[in-house]
Amino acid sequence: MSSITTSPAGNTVTTPAERTGAHTDEAAALIGGARERIDTLDDRIIGLVQERMAVSAVIQEARITSGGRRVNLSRETAVLSHYRDALGKPGTALAMTLLELCRGRV
């Protein structure tokens, strides 16, 4: 029995198992629900990153307006350490990406 069907409009429709790579409908349902949760988490993470970027811009503006530099390297080092301590080596890469996103917006 083929798991690919055709809709009345002639479009190919795949089963949940095929969309998820699972071998059973039960696993496909679990994966589908978990993916929805991940999508929701990703949306929240993106929103938080955008909020972080906005706050960083305020800080940079204040620092530059007061005669300081746009970037505070000791603060960036602390952020890198915080992420590394919490998430291991990949945390450092994540922190670098965040710092890069937040630099130079002013």
General description of the model:
By secondary structure, this protein is mainly α. Helices cover 71% and strands 4% of the residues. It has helices spanning 16-20, 25-65, 73-87, 89-102; strands spanning 5-6, 12-13. The chain has a two-stranded antiparallel sheet. It starts with a strand and ends with a helix.
- Strand pairing plus helix content: what structural class? mainly alpha
What is the CA-CA span between the terminal residues? 60 Å
Looking across the biggest beta sheet, what order are the strands in?
1-2
Order of helices and strands: EEHHHH
Provide the fold topology.
Elements: E1 5-6, E2 12-13, H1 16-20, H2 25-65, H3 73-87, H4 89-102
Antiparallel strand pairs: 1-2
Helix pairs in contact: 3-4
